[in-house]
Design a protein that fits this description.
mainly alpha; about 170 residues; globular
Length: about 170
């Protein structure tokens, strides 16, 4: 249990670092279309959800292979954490901007950090409780659907506020 907790803390740090770096990778790659599938191509909330989703997905795959025998529920718990953490970014963002009527950079950073921490905390607690185990197939499918949506909507976004780039207005 202590080892799992340590790996979850390392995951938080890994996602914080790689997610932060991912914010700049599209520009650094000279706007490479492949890179843009996995990193933000603009400043929309949708694109910023990638900053948590892809690094946590990558780290989760590592954890799944490392701990799946000892903790059979880790796959569903991590999938739940990925979904929850990714969803919390727009939930927190739109909640605070509704109240403040403006975008505050420091709060945006806080949302990213808080969403990552909650995602890993949920993953840890659910791994130990095994509550998500009956939903493994559903949760893995939802993560896969979200993955496909990121691939599809990076360059063909629907007409929705979630996909609007505020820098274009």
């Amino acid at each position: 249990m202590k080892k799992l907790r340590r790996y979850m803390v390392i995951g938080i740090i890994f996602v914080l670092i790689t997610g932060t770096l991912a914010h700049f990778v599209f520009r650094w790659s000279n706007n490479n279309k492949i890179v843009g599938l996995f990193t933000p191509i603009n400043e929309s909330i949708w694109e910023h959800m990638k900053l948590l989703f892809f690094p946590m997905l990558l780290y989760s795959i590592i954890l799944m292979f490392k701990f799946r025998n000892k903790y059979p529920c880790i796959i569903s718990a991590l999938c739940f954490g990925i979904i929850a953490g990714t969803a919390l970014i727009p939930i927190f963002y739109y909640t605070y901007t509704l109240v403040t009527s403006k975008d505050i950079f420091a709060i945006d950073i806080g949302i990213f950090i808080l969403s990552i921490a909650i995602a890993f905390w949920l993953s840890y607690k659910l791994t130990l409780s095994r509550r998500t185990e009956p939903y493994t197939t559903l949760l893995c499918t939802l993560v896969f659907i979200l993955f496909i949506c990121f691939m599809r909507f990076s360059y063909n976004p629907p007409n929705n506020i979630l996909f609007e780039d505020p820098m274009v207005k």
